[in-house]
Amino acid sequence: MNIILIGPPGAGKGTQAETLVKGRNMVQLSTGDMLRAARTSGTEMGNMVAGVMDRGELVTDEIVIGLIEEQLTTADAAGGFIFDGFPRTLAQADALSDLLEKVGQKLDTVIQLEVNDEILVDRIVGRAAEAVAAGKEARADDNAESLKIRLMAYYKDTSPLIGYYYAKGQLQQVDGLGTIDGVGADIADALGKVG
Ligand code: AMP
After folding, report:
1. Number of neighbouring beta carbons within 10 Å of residue 73
2. Which of these is catalytic: 24, 123, 139, 168?
3. Per the CB 3.0–4.6 Å rule, which of 11, 65, 115, 154 could disulfide with 95?
4. Relative to the CA of 33, which ligand 1 atom is closest?
């Protein structure tokens, strides 16, 4: 099964993707993780996107579509793909549907994690504080200024995808406010409806 997890920053996409990877042998494709890895290894592309990411803006469609294409054509689909943080624009959504077709796959469902904005801010500020407490470096974009820009990018560029997938009959909404296990159970129910 191939699914998209969609929701604003801090909605829990990465956390829920991890559960799906462990429980269902799915492969998580997070463009955010891929871009952070490119930065850490200091590739030309990584250096190019660093400033954009730290400000909380979106990197170009071309870059992220290229990253996803590379994974789709090389990774073993196992229990299917979880697209986490991709697509974030309508152009990316169209590219994904073309790429899936090219590799003989299809999109099964889109899960929207619904969380209210004030809770997001608390979660993200909390995530930064937890990282520091654990002696790790907080994500450079987990600060109030970048978060504002990330939220704006979400509402401006990504939230139209919700209407788009709804119109295609592929959208399922899950309340992202519960416990990790509670939200996980709701996602499992949603997947049961298509699987
Ligand atoms: P994330 O870990 O998904 O929150 O992504 C972190 C940052 O990486 C975002 O704020 C963007 O700068 C960039 N990014 C990740 N995925 C995408 C995407 N699909 N399109 C454009 N930019 C992205």
Report:
1. 10
2. 139
3. 65
4. 2
Query: How much is the pLDDT for 22?
Result: 94
88 lines ligand 1 (CB under 6 A): yes
| Residue 54 burial by Cβ neighbours in a 10 Å radius (0-12, 13-18, 19+) | middle
- Which residue lies with its CA nearest to atom 8 of ligand 1? 32
The catalytic position among 148, 150, 156, 168 is 150
22 is catalytic: no
β-pair partners for 28: 82
**Predicted structure pTM score:** 0.93
Calculate mean pLDDT across residues 138-143: 82
* CB-based contact 132:26 (threshold 8 Å): no
Burial of 56 (0-12, 13-18, 19+ CB in 10 A): buried
Burial 144-167 (b: 16+ CB within 10 A, else e): eebbeebbebbeebbbebbebbee
Contacts of 190 (CB under 8 A, 6+ apart): 109, 111, 172, 174
